[in-house]
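Hi support team,

I'm filing this because I wasn't sure whether my run with zinc ion finished correctly. The job status page said complete, but I'd like someone to confirm that the output block is well-formed before I use it downstream. Pasting the exact inputs I used:
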Amino acid sequence: MSHIRGLEDGTSEIRGVVLSSSANEKIVDGLRRGIGALFAGDREEHFVATPVISRRTSERAGYPTTFPQLLGAVHGSQDGDEPTATDLVLTSAACHHLYPLLAGKVLGAPTCLSVEATCYRGEKTYETGRLRSFRMYEVVRFGQAGAVEQWRDRALRSADQWLSGLGLSTRVVQASDPFFGRTGDFLARTQREQQLKWEITAELTEDLSQAIASANYHKEYFGEAFEITNTDGSETHSACLAFGLDRITLALRHAHGVDTSDWPLAVRANLAL
Ligand code: ATP
Ligand code: ZN
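And here is everything the job wrote out:
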């Protein structure tokens, strides 16, 4: 297809929406295997989720109130009438698919699950790596407070080592979410003060670094929202480590070049390219 200019990177005319070529998908597959290997020891099950989720679940997770500016919804017509809102919204974060699975359950032991989903966010800017539709692979750990926080720290460290091992110049930085409105300012401040969110950043272009993975300690937030408890009756705590598969791929291409056959042998071997 080299005679058609501009097809190599899948950039389309729709801002924040890209196509992924088969060369790109090979990298993404390598990343999936790498993440799977990192968490092989503690992960019990992996899921592939749909790009839509029930509105009720999104509401229970608090997304429409904390990030109304990013949420997308599915509209449909019942019988040819004007389309109206359905009971589905677009998936905003992969981990939202896991909480309903555990809702109302008592967790007999620490639980670790992972899930990949195509997520939608109504981003307002479209710099490199800021997509409206992108793949997120999340590993989520449930259990007692201290153990979950320790897991988050350990998971962040091993993810950073793995990503550095792929030749990326990463940085681990404290972060906060773009919560909405005045209450949002308070939530973001709490998040920073309690060091709940960390990001692993890497360069996607010469003058732009983005978060390629983020680790969040939710405390009892989802345990409470979905009534998930530990055997002693306490609300379960949770933390997630989210990998942005499309952003990691962009960072790798920036670091090693567009053509994967030119990449360092060790990186190619690591990703089975
Ligand atoms: P950012 O600060 O860049 O907006 P975020 O903190 O909102 O990202 P999270 O909600 O923690 O991101 O999402 C987890 C991961 O998903 C991020 O670390 C990133 O790699 C990826 N991600 C988030 N938003 C986007 C996007 N708009 N396009 C591509 N990847 C994204
Ligand atoms: Zn999450």
